[in-house]
Design goal:
The complex is a heterodimer. Chain A is α/β, with parallel strands linked by helices. Chain A folds into 2 domains: about 170 residues, Rossmann fold (3-Layer(aba) Sandwich); about 70 residues, no CATH class. Chain A has 9 helices and 10 strands. In chain A, the strands form 2 sheets. A 6-stranded mixed β-sheet of chain A has the order 6-7-8-3-9-10, sandwiched between helices. In chain A, strands 2-1-4-5 form a 4-stranded antiparallel β-sheet, with helices on one face. The N and C termini of chain A lie close together (about 5 Å). The relative contact order of chain A is 0.18. Chain B is mainly α. Chain B folds into 2 domains: about 40 residues; about 230 residues, no CATH class. Chain B contains 9 helices and no strands. The longest helix of chain B is centred in the middle third of the chain and has 40 residues. Classes of the chains: A alpha/beta, B mainly alpha. At the A-B interface, helix 2 and helix 3 of A face helix 4 and helix 5 of B.
């Protein structure tokens, strides 16, 4: 399993996401219990944790799909909780969200899936420019040949790639990946990991990658945080996080059978 | 939580608690329905109008329902005429069949049958489609890409349904009358022109207006119920099935209630 090489593009003087004291509960169960987090410009931050620990909830709060109960979430200098719907939409154009199950519009072809955000948010573009943009992002994810296919005709890995292409089409500053390698075979996982790194280099994005796949975490993460009991308990590089003697951290490591 | 208040051994306090919880849920649901409707009426006036999607939905709801609606309407026309004949024949009044058919079909059967068929075909399709989109996070994907999913999915479908059900009703009515004519022509040898002269002689302008208004209300109900159930579905694939099923059952129930109320209003107007 190959670790990610040091990323020279990280600008530690500029934070694109700042979260302080974030709390979120569903009924009586509090999943996030005072989470603090910073994402630096150009950085790939991996959030590790077991299923049901609130990892996806965290990025859904960042993108405004869920409301926090307490705490502040600041994205690109704007407090997400205090934004009006129109301001939130403007901010969302700078955030790309890659869903766990790709969430492609299954009544549309791949081309129409990619055209959908362009038709609404890039009205200044001519038809030819739109076509060029679609081809560019499809080339970036290596699936130009799938342009006229329906999502149901694609494999899980291809759907993931098209999902990432759809989020890239509006050139976001921040990428949020929800379990990018879940349900994929090991070879496709490696391809998706490479794609995440390529996206970071080519599109100069800052990313949060939610996963419980340690291979993915090691391959794409510049920094890793581990969510345990609703709080970030460990933070650092992959090796630093798993140096811990904490039984929960070790059992997580052992369960993934790495090395 | 288990809300079975009839469970053996349930104390009066527990029964009161369970009843209160159930009432609570009903009021919460009513408030959600109100908010959903209010949001539709708020968003329908403001751009973007998503005209292309409205036209696509009109095609899906209107054109694709035509074969089923045509066949059903035609058969109903024939069967209704055939079943009405013996009663009129007892009084030697079979010449009144065209008038009876026209009043029954235009005032009640046409709008009602169209709405019930559409509730089954269109309501379930909308409920299942939106339910599936909710479960597979497609609605969330729209939201995070700064597209208003309510406007794109709900407003367009409710508008299309409200526009298309009246059109389908007119078509069903016409096809049913044709079915009735075939039966009358076969048995009483009435010509087409005489048949339709009697049909239009028996109805009033108010009948046509009432039928149109009714079908607009039915169309709105079918679209709104399907969208509400689908848009708010949960619990995975099970929820999609429930959304589709519940869309049909609720829409049909509401259509009958509306039919009853509108009939009373029209009869009151007619009395003046």
């Amino acid at each position: 399993m190959e670790a990610k090489r040091i990323n020279p593009n990280i600008d530690r003087s500029e934070k694109v996401i700042t979260i302080r004291g974030l709390r979120k509960a569903f009924d009586d169960f509090e999943v996030l219990r005072g989470v603090d987090l910073d994402l630096f410009k150009g950085e790939n931050l991996v959030v590790l944790g077991r299923s049901g620990t609130g990892k996806s909830v965290l990025i859904k709060i960042i993108s405004g799909l869920l409301q926090a109960d307490e705490g502040t979430v600041n994205v690109l200098g704007q407090d997400v909780g205090g934004l009006k719907p129109r301001e939130m939409d403007a901010l969302r154009l700078k955030i790309g969200f890659s869903f766990q199950n790709s969430a492609l519009y299954d009544s549309m072809t791949v081309r129409e899936n990619l055209e959908f955000p362009l038709e609404r948010h890039a009205k200044h573009m001519t038809v030819a420019e739109r076509e060029d943009t679609i081809q560019y992002v499809l080339e970036a994810v290596g699936l130009l040949q799938a342009i006229n296919q329906m999502p149901s005709e694609l494999s899980g890995g291809q759907r993931k790639r098209i999902g990432i292409a759809r989020t890239l089409i509006l050139k976001p500053d921040i990428m949020l990946y929800d379990e990018p390698t879940a349900g994929l075979d090991p070879i496709t996982c490696i391809e998706i990991n490479s794609l995440i790194n390529e996206v970071q280099e080519k599109f100069n994005t800052s990313s949060i990658i939610i996963t419980h796949d340690l291979t993915c975490a090691r391959a794409v993460g510049d920094r890793i945080v581990m969510l345990l009991d609703g709080q970030f308990q460990r933070e650092g590089t992959f090796d630093e996080v798993f140096e811990s003697n904490d039984e929960r951290v070790q059992s997580f490591y052992n369960y993934n059978f790495i090395d | 939580m288990d809300l079975d208040k009839n469970k053996p051994g349930a104390s009066p306090a527990r029964r009161r608690y369970v009843t209160t919880r159930r009432l609570d849920r009903i009021f919460v649901e009513l408030a959600n329905v109100y908010r959903f409707n209010a949001r539709f009426f708020k968003e329908v006036w403001f751009p973007p109008y998503e005209l292309r999607e409205v036209i696509r939905q009109c095609y899906e709801i209107g054109v694709r329902s035509l074969p089923l609606i045509s066949l059903t309407g035609f058969i109903i026309g024939i069967v209704f005429t055939n079943q009405s004949r013996p009663s009129l024949a007892d009084f030697g009044a079979t010449s009144l069949l065209p008038a009876l058919i026209s009043v029954a079909i235009i005032r009640a059967i046409g709008p009602l049958v169209t709405a019930l068929i559409a509730a089954g075909r269109v309501g379930s399709a909308i409920g299942a489609e939106l339910g599936s989109m909710r479960v597979t996070e497609q609605i969330d994907a729209m939201e995070v890409s700064a597209t208003n999913p309510f406007k794109f999915l709900v407003v367009t479908r409710v508008l299309a349904s409200t526009l298309m059900i009246p059109a389908l009703t007119m078509f069903t009515t016409l096809v049913s009358l044709l079915g009735g004519y075939l039966n009358v022509h076969q048995n009483e040898l009435t010509s087409l022109s005489v048949f339709f002269y009697q049909v239009f002689d028996a109805i009033t302008f108010l009948d046509i207006i009432a039928s149109s208004v009714k079908s607009v209300i039915f169309g709105f109900t079918i679209g709104m119920v399907g969208c509400y159930k689908g848009y708010n579905s949960s619990k995975g694939t099970e929820g999609v099935g429930k959304a589709a099923n519940s869309s049909v059952v609720t829409a049909m129930f509401l259509i009958f209630i509306e039919e009853l109320l509108i009939m009373q209003v029209i009869n009151t107007i007619r009395a003046f």
